[in-house]
Amino acid sequence: MSDKTVVSTKTSVDTKTEKREDGATVKTITTTTVEEYSDGSSSTKTSIKTITEGASINQIDPKTGKPTGKAYNPSEAKKSAPRVKVTTDKDFLKQALSAHNDYRKKHHVPKLELSDDLCQVAQAWADKIAAEDKMQHSENGYGENVHWCSGKVDEGKAPVDHWYSEVKDYKFVGDLDYQRGTGHFTQVVWKETKELGIAKAQGKNGGTYVVANYNPSGNFIGKFGENVFKA
């Protein structure tokens, strides 16, 4: 008697959308696949995926890895993030993108694409902190790495090398969550991140501020094991 074979496959997708009180949109996607076999039998497989967009989330302190007690809405923050003309030279942008992708390849994750919009966001923040000569993060809803150097930064690879150097302190053990002092590295190689924006600006005291923004952002508690891989 021959083994049964699949004679037909039917797949249906049902999507339900719910608006929560905190402003988040929750989409529940149910996919049902029915396979019919040559012997007249059939099987049904159902998968359910939930996507939450625009939720207010707790900020994580990059130094301690603990919630700060503050919350913000990433979707709204992204829309309202200042954008300015990119004044950073194109060679710097290309070098920074290449450095990111070299490290990402090493850790078995897809390449990033350079986003003009994200570069405008990064330039706006780099200009602001350079004018104030104050090293700080924005709250623009995107992932973010910031670097400062006492002199000029001519090579786009330099700040990326600095962020990546934290790999030496990262423990690739199971599904560990945020590890103190490694957040710059994990954002550089975060699997789910697709786009990069980067820019630099000169401070009034001669130092250089470099800002990189990432979309989607990385470093989500509970997601490190599926986004950060050993080289």
Automatic annotation (TrEMBL):
This is Golgi-associated plant pathogenesis-related protein 1. Gene3D superfamilies: CAP. Residues 13-24 have a biased composition (Basic and acidic residues). Residues 1-81 are annotated as: Disordered. Residues 1-12, 25-34, 41-52 have a biased composition (Low complexity). PANTHER family: CYSTEINE-RICH SECRETORY PROTEIN-RELATED. It comes from Orchesella cincta (Springtail). InterPro entries: Allrgn_V5/Tpx1_CS, CAP_dom, CAP_sf, CRISP-related, SCP_GAPR1-like. PROSITE patterns: CRISP_1. Residues 91-222 form the SCP domain. GO terms for cellular component: extracellular region.
